[in-house]
Amino acid sequence: MPELIVPTVRLHDAWLEAHDEWGPGAHEDGFGLRPPTRCARRPDSRPG
Question: Is the pTM of the predicted complex or chain greater than 0.70?
């Protein structure tokens, strides 16, 4: 699995290119969730 890293200015152009390639859609986190959508919350997550 790829290692997660902190975003940097150096990666901005690559991110924009990837986003243009994939575009917006259901593959994005939270896409399509609406206020009545109930999601399971991890026990260690902060309220919010």
Answer: no
